[in-house]
Amino acid sequence: MSETFRKFLRTLPDFPADLPAFDPGSAPQDPALLFKQWLDEALDAGEQQPHAFSLATVDAASGGGPQPSSRMLILKNIDDDGWHFATSRTSRKGRELTAEPRAAMNFYWPRLGRQVRLAGTVTGLSVEASSLDWHERPRADGTDNPNWQLYALQPREIEFWQAAADGRHVRHRVGPDGTPLE
Ligand SMILES: Cc1cc2nc3c(=O)[nH]c(=O)nc-3n(C[C@H](O)[C@H](O)[C@H](O)COP(=O)(O)O)c2cc1C
């Protein structure tokens, strides 16, 4: 079974052949601006939920050290506070963020062979902003949810990654002001 499955995985499609070129030198220096450009291009390429990302958190370190966990979320905004997302404060991720307010985000747009990943510290935004986000949800029914929390991740590092058909993938890693990092 595992041998058959291993071979099956090898037959699955790779990146599409017609990938865009990415030249970090001519891209916007502001990472938020470059991200918005890539998000627009992902939408134009037909990505269904280009604003969906994986959020990784860790629990409070116990005997074996911290245990990471991840799940998909929806990006709500980007501003001076950081990159916004919302969830229940009492959820696993909510509890983990209370104990350890650091996280990593990962966006992936397969049609363009692009990935954006961020890591940094997370703060909870105001009750008013959280309530507004709750009521703006597509299936909002008018009820309040006092546990709903809007968070902002302030990235320390942001990496833009572009796959290339010849395997010469481009990695552009920057600080929050766009300064290239090693
Ligand atoms: C594409 C997608 C988007 C999602 N967006 C959110 C979201 O914005 N907020 C949220 O709380 N859960 C969202 N979920 C559900 C989470 O992935 C997760 O199952 C849930 O929040 C519980 O996670 P936890 O137990 O790790 O706290 C989304 C799931 C998918 C697949």
Question: Explain this structure to me?
Answer:
It is a single chain. This protein has 182 residues and is an alpha+beta fold. The protein has one domain: Pnp Oxidase, Chain A (Roll), CATH 2.30.110. It is 23% helix and 35% strand. The chain is built from 4 helices and 8 strands, in the order ααββββαββαββ. Strands 1, 2, 3, 4, 5, 6, 7 and 8 form an 8-stranded antiparallel beta sheet that branches. β5 and β6 form a beta hairpin. 23% of the residues are buried. The model has no long low-confidence stretch (mean pLDDT 96). It binds flavin mononucleotide. Flavin mononucleotide binds next to β2, β4 and α3. The site of flavin mononucleotide has 13 residues, from β2, β4 and α3.
- What is the CATH H-level superfamily? Electron Transport, Fmn-binding Protein, Chain A
Helix content: 10-25%
Question: Mean pLDDT, rounded to whole units?
Answer: 96
Q: Which hetero ligands occur in this complex?
A: flavin mononucleotide
- In the CATH hierarchy, what is the class? Mainly Beta
Shape: globular
What's the architecture, going by CATH? Roll
* H/E element sequence: HHEEEEHEEHEE
Structural class: alpha+beta
Rg, please? 18 Å
Number of helices: 4
Give the total of beta strands.
Answer: 8
Which regions contain 5 or more consecutive residues with pLDDT less than 50? none
How much beta, percentage-wise? 25-35%
The span between the termini is 42 Å
**What do we call the CATH topology?**
Pnp Oxidase, Chain A
The biggest sheet amounts to: 8 strands, antiparallel
Q: How many separate domains make up the residues?
A: 1
